[in-house]
Structure formats: structure tokens, C-alpha cells
From TrEMBL:
Domain of life where this protein originates: Bacteria
Protein name in the entry: Competence damage-inducible protein A
Domain CinA C-terminal: 11-166
Pfam families named among the record's database cross-references: CinA
SUPFAM superfamilies given in the database record: CinA-like
Amino acid sequence: MKTLLPPTLTDLAARVVAENAAIGRRIVLAESCTGGLVSAAITEIPGSSDVLDRGFVTYSNDAKIESLGVSAELVDTFGAVSPAVAWAMARGALKHSDADVAVAITGVAGPGGGTETKPVGTVVFACAIRGQNENDISAEQKNFDPTLSRAEIRQEAAMAALELLLP
């Protein structure tokens, strides 16, 4: 076995490491539904220590609140799977790290947990860059095919997060 993870994931992670290393940019991750998969993909790559500052796996709402400083009111008002919470996760990851860019991921990987307004496959991403105006932090919701397996949704979400980390 050459790598623990699928080549599609590690190939993209290798680009993330190489391109961020080339510009001296450090990254931080705040992962919920991916459970550290993005961080794992990055650390499969030799030289990743030059790029990855740290990763937060904040699976529970309490972890998002305690580790990243996400407001309990935000979670209560909008739910953990929302642009507002992803935005706050990315902002908190930057605040609690030495990184230059943060990506946050929160979603419903299934097979349960979906609702009518947030069905299985709903994943929200946010990207924050140190020094940018907080109003410019981008958050985007993607709706992956709900018939995909939990593993497939998590892999698709990890791929989307890695794309956000490309300079």
C-alpha cells in the first residue's frame, strides 16, 4: 500500500502542499463531517509540515463552540450546517492558529441526520485568509448526491475543501 487514501484525494493534496509551499503559505483546517479526512490527506504528502499548521476536528457543536469560539447563538439560530457556522469555524481556526488561510467544513454525510431543509449531502465550506476583512470570508453550500454513501459524500467534501486550499 503506497498511501492510506484514494489517489484522487492524495493527488490533490500533493498539489495543495506543493503550491502552498511554493508561496510560503500555511494552512489550518476546521473539519466536522469530514472528521479529519482533509488533514489526513495533506499529511500523507511528504513536506506537509511546511504547509499544515494544524487541524481542528470539531464534530460536536460543543467542540465548535469551545475549540473555535463559534457562538452558541449562531449554532442555535442557524444550525451547525450553515454558512454562518462555517464562516465562524474558519474565522476561529485562523484566530487559534498561525496559519495564513483556513478552510472549514460542516455538513450532513448521512445516511441519517438529514432534514427537509438540510438533506443528506448538504455540506457547507468557508475559506478565510488572514488579514482579510471578516465580511469577505466566503462561505458556500454544496449539495452532493444524497444517494452517495457516507464515505463518498465525505470524500467529495474533502476534495472540495482541498480545492479551496489551492492558491
